[in-house]
Each structure stands twice: as C-alpha cells, then as structure tokens.
Amino acid sequence: MITLKELAEKLNVSISTVSKALNGSSEIGEATIARVKETAKMYNYKPNRVALSLKNSKTKTIGVIIPNILNHFFAKVLYGIEKESAKQGYNIITCLSNELYEKEANSLELLANGSVDGFIMSIAEETEVNKKTDHFKDILNQKIPILMFDRVSQAITCDKVVNNDFQAAYDATMHLIKEGRKNIILINKIEELSVGKLRSKGCFKAIEDAKQYNSNLTEVKIPSTENVEVAIENYFDKKQPIDGVICIDNISGGAVLNIAKERGYSIPQDMSIIGFSDDNVLPFTSPKLSTIAQHSDAIGEASVQILVNRLESKEPVETVFKTIDFSLNLRETTL
Amino acid sequence: MITLKELAEKLNVSISTVSKALNGSSEIGEATIARVKETAKMYNYKPNRVALSLKNSKTKTIGVIIPNILNHFFAKVLYGIEKESAKQGYNIITCLSNELYEKEANSLELLANGSVDGFIMSIAEETEVNKKTDHFKDILNQKIPILMFDRVSQAITCDKVVNNDFQAAYDATMHLIKEGRKNIILINKIEELSVGKLRSKGCFKAIEDAKQYNSNLTEVKIPSTENVEVAIENYFDKKQPIDGVICIDNISGGAVLNIAKERGYSIPQDMSIIGFSDDNVLPFTSPKLSTIAQHSDAIGEASVQILVNRLESKEPVETVFKTIDFSLNLRETTL
DNA sequence: TTGAAAGCGCTAACAC
DNA sequence: GTGTTAGCGCTTTCAA
Predict the structure, then answer these.
(1) Where are the domains of chain A?
(2) At what angle do helices A165-179 and A194-209 cross, to 10 degrees?
(3) Nucleic strand C within 7 A of Cβ B13
(4) CA atoms of B32 and B28, how far apart (whole Å)
(5) HTH lacI-type domain: from which residue to which, for each copy (chains A, B) (predicted)?
C-alpha cells in the first residue's frame, strides 16, 4: 500500500499537494493534477480507509447483528443488506448473536468503539424473552443509531422495519375461512417472539371478523426447544378434526405437510396448509406449499436506506417505522 | 466515546500516563494506575479501534467473501467463521459476490485498502468458469493473505480448506454399488466448479474400482442456468433404467426424490438416492434423504484458525492445505 | 514515576 | 498554485 507521503516524495511535491490534486481541488494547477493522478494510478494508490475513518470520525461501515444465519429469512435479509450497503458505499461487519443476549450485547459494545457508524439488527430470542433493553439504550446514548428489523423492541425508540405480520396472518386465515375451512389450527413455534404474538393475533382477528362463517381456530404452541415434528404428531394423535393449518414460523409448514400426507389426508382436498416464509425455502415439497411470502431482501434494503439516510443527513431525522408488504402465494396446498 | 485525552484532563495527568496506566505498565505507580482505571471505568472508556488500527497497521478484521449466502452450505460456513473469529478477537467484514467476478474483484480491491488484515473466501462461479486469477495475485502481492475454502484455485498458492470431495463422492457411489445398484445416475448441476469436477471423478473412480459389480454410472450434467426439476424430469422421460441416484450439489436431492415418487418408484426399494449437503438442509423430505454430510461449520472454523495463525505468527508460515472430513448419513432413501 | 513528542495516513485551514 | 501545520486517538521512545 503506497501512501500519500511516498507519492509526494516520488513527485517532489508536498503531501497536501498530492492530496488536493487527487481530490481534484481547484487550488492545484491542471498540469500538476494530471501528473499526480498519473503517478497515483501507476503505483495503484488507494486512500487508506482507516486513516480516513480516524480523520472523519466516520467508518462508512454498518454493524449488522443477525440472530441466526441458518434461518433462511435472516440469510435473505442479510443478502438485501449487503447488496444495498455495497451500493451506498458502506461495508458491513456481521455478527451473529445465535439468539443469545450475551453475544448480542457483546457485539454491540465491541463495535461501538468506533468500528461502525450505526447498527442494523434483529433482536435475539433470549433478549426478547427476558425483555432486556439496557444494552440498546447504552448504544443510543452514545449517539450511535440502531435500526431494528423484524424482531423489534417496543421499549426502544429507534428506526424499525417490519413485515406487516398482523395483516399477513389475517389475510391467510381469512383465505382459509373463505375456502370453507371450519377447524383451523395455528402452529406457533415462535410464541415468545414479538412477531409470533402479532401473527397469532392476526389469525384470531380474522376469525372474529368472519364469525358468520363459524370457523374455529385452535392455537398449538410449540416451545422453541421442542422438536416440531414430534409436537405436530402429538397434536394429530388427539384426533381432533382439522381441515386447515396455518404455520407462522418458516419451517413448520413442510413438517405439517409431510405428517398430514403420511396420515392419509389428501392435500388440499381434505386440508389446506399455509406456511410462512420467504419464497423458495421449501421448493421441493409435493404438493407445493402455499405460503405467506415475506420479501426479506426488501427488508434488508429498506433498512440500509433508512439507516444511511440518518447517518448522512445534516438535519435531525424523524424516527422511521416502515412496514414491508408481503404477498400470499397460493400454490398447491390450498384450494 | 471518551478519549484518552479527555480522561487525562479529568485526572490532571498526561495522555501518555493514562495510556500506560490502562495498559498496566510497570512504569506507572500503583496508586496512579488504580486512579486511572477507576476513572476510565466510570466513564466507560473504550480504546478507539480505528486509532489502534492506524497505529498498529492491523485491523483485527477479516474480509469474508461468500459466493451465495442463500446456499445453506455457505451460510453454515459463515456461521463457523463468525463463531471462531469472535473467539479469536476478530471482526468479519462480509461481502457477497453473488457468483460474479466483478463483485468479487471489487470487494477484494475495496477491502485491500487497509480495511482488513486478510481474506477468507470461496471463489465465485463466474471467476472459476473464466479462470480469472489476476485479482487474487494483486492482493497477494500486497502481502495480504487469502485463504480459500471449498472452491479453490489451483493456480494460486495460498492456504486452502476443502471438503474431501473426491473421497465423499467415492464412498457414496461405493455404497450404492454394494447395495447392488446397477444403473446409477449422477446429477451434476455444478460441473463448472472445481468441486463438481472432483466429486464427479470420485464417483467414476468407485465404479472403476468395483467393476466386478458391473454397475453403470451415467452423468447427467445440468447447466447452472437451467431449472433442476425440469432437467431431471427430462432425463426420467428417457425411460432409461435407474436404480440409484447421486446428487452432488446441495439441492437436487430433494427434487429427484419428489419426481421419483411421483413417477411411482418406491424409495428406497426401487431406487436409492443420496444427496450432498450439510445435515438438516432437507429435513422434511419423506422418506428422509440420505446425504453426504459436509461439516460446513468446521470448514469455517478451520479457515479462521489457519488465517489468524498466519496473521499473528512472527515467522513465515508454510502454506496449509487442509481437508475436512465428511460423513455419509444414511437415512431412509438408501437400503 | 511521569510527561513531551513523534508518528501511523489523511484532510483542511492558513501561509506564502 | 503550492507548502506548512495541526489534529483525528493511540502507543512508544526518550527526556525530565
């Protein structure tokens, strides 16, 4: 890595002349600018980003904290974040909380030492369950902005980007009701999470708004520690009538489908199933699973746009709460 | 963020005294050390990482370039990388090449301006296909180490971590042969990639080594741009006898299973199927897919260990070529 | 035992 | 039009 100083020596001019010339300053003569630029290119000069960061107190880097990268939803959000960040000239430092409060708090603290200009994150499950918020407040007090997506904290005032979870669940349930399904079950493996509660509420609201259809909704809560398939098998063993299933996390849908098929249900004739997920997560089920499709990459992109806008705006920016649309993808497990 | 300077003012001592005290230098008196540390804690002092980086010409940051984060294999490697990096006190800057040469070269160049101490990466498909290597050489010439995992370049001398791809494919094929399968097909959707070629070779070698069994192996190459399901359907349409299938990429397995079931094959009685993937990628197939299981997180962990060792070692380190074991996970789609 | 000063690479106000 | 200088936050040599 060649530096300005070395370039200056080679050119027999001062460091600041080189600096100004490379930045095309009008203070410097045409000829010099050309000469400097040429030499810089020849030696493949690149401004040292660390020095720039120190000088400007700006790193052009965003800290991203993801609860679980093996969850396709988060992977796709990260995809969106990275894409938009690159476009805006930002790097991302990625930390994975693995759903743990400790790791999340640690990452925030560690990166708040000047490594990043702001954070984009989704809250770890443990943090949500235990309602921890002090670590967020610490960061915000240091005037480092945080943007939360998907799993957000009511108790914290900051930019937020979420799915329209309530509406999505509402629409899916309404669809089953209008199909004529009477005994619908709601598989909730994420009841501890804010989004889980929201989606659950959406389902019940649909039932309420359509009571003339006389559909029933039974919520099956599965603790996050428990095996999905076993829990679902257990419920089926109860022999309650079921003709509709809504899964509000992004893996249960496939499990329900397989179990139902094994038990002899014709899908979708005997039973409709709707999963919750980004497209293409369960591409190989047969029949193909109908889903509530989150536009996960759009969540990532919007998050970056909102955060970068805040970072680069001269004037104070109002807190943003953005809702990302979803779509109901009816494939082969619904009528 | 409080700085050393501000602490020094509050304590009425010099900046260097504060610095030394915080680092527990023996030059400084016990009493002063205690006083300084206390005040530092009170004001929640954290050394500015950017300043440290500039001073030490070390960022304690690794640049990670992933071809496709939506591929579960890479997501899990990233998981391993992040986990081990955090353990070693490194941050990771994540870039996604999305299989494009341009993006890959760009990320390397961008981060080589002092942002990272070294790189961990897997080569983008486009880069491999076009055999581009100059961008790697540029970086290595700047004395910034690169470690390649999974998809590596023969033409470049650097640390490498790979699956034992040849052996994995060999063992899987041998298993099918010993099951008595005679007409085995090899679904190769990644023939352009080095790992694809290696796995393919492993399969053929097994056939050769076991010619007394009289098993046949037919390779079905699917261009990466083509739809897997359509291509597989097309092959099945040819009505060639098939009683064994090996899929050497990590999604085709599920597709083959569904198509075979739809066409009336009993699995595994009529046909054995083995997929290639990390565990739990296709957890909801029925019957459960047998797979060649990569230990993807181990790849990530090993990569970080090797790179960090190189970065922190005083003496020159020999180039490392590490092979990660796999396991053959026989579930329900094999006899 | 403590402090002053230089320097990592860069920019920008100010001199010349 | 070009150069000098200070300073971003930190460590470290050298001087007191």
Answers:
(1) 4-47, 58-164+296-324, 165-295
(2) 40
(3) yes
(4) 7
(5) 2-56
Instruction: Inform me whether the C-beta atom of residue B254 falls under 8 Å from chain A C-beta atoms.
Output: yes
Question: Which of strand D's nucleotides are less than 7 A from any protein C-beta?
Answer: 1-5, 7-14
DSSP A198-216: HHHHHHHHHHHHTGGG--E
Residues with Cβ < 8 Å from B328, sequence gap 6 or more? B168, B171, B172, B175, B274, B290, B292, B293
Distance CA A104, CA A126 (A): 10
Residue (of B159, B121, B163, B144) closest to B326 by Cα position: B163
Question: What is the rounded CA–CA span in Å between residue B294 and residue B288?
Answer: 17
pLDDT over 70, % of chain A: 98
Residues 6+ apart with CB under 8 A from B124: B67, B97, B98, B99, B100, B101, B103, B104
Give per-residue pLDDT as tens, A83-94.
999 999 999 999
Identify the CATH homologous superfamily for domain A58-164+296-324: Response regulator (3.40.50.2300)
Query: Quick check: do A58-164+296-324 and A165-295 share a fold?
Result: yes
The pLDDT, as a whole number, for residue B282 is 62
Closest Cβ–Cβ partner in A54, A112, A285 for B51: A54
CB contact under 8 A, B91 and A115: yes
pLDDT at B273: 96
Distance set, CA B184 to CA B41, B126, B203 (Å): 67, 30, 10
Q: Are strands A326-329 and A290-294 parallel, antiparallel or unpaired?
A: antiparallel
DSSP for A265-287, written as a single string: --TTTT-EEEEEE-TTSSTT-SS
Chain A residues close to B94, C-beta within 8 Å: 64, 78, 82, 92-94
Are A307 and A118 in contact by the 8 Å Cβ rule? The answer is: yes
Quick check: A103 contacting B, CB < 8 Å?
Answer: yes
Q: What parts of chain B have a pLDDT lower than 70?
A: 279-284
DSSP calls for B170-219: HHHHHHHHHHT--EEEEEES-TTSHHHHHHHHHHHHHHHHTGGG--EEEE
CATH class as words, domain B165-295: alpha beta
Q: Which nucleotide is nearest to B55 (CA to C1')?
A: C8
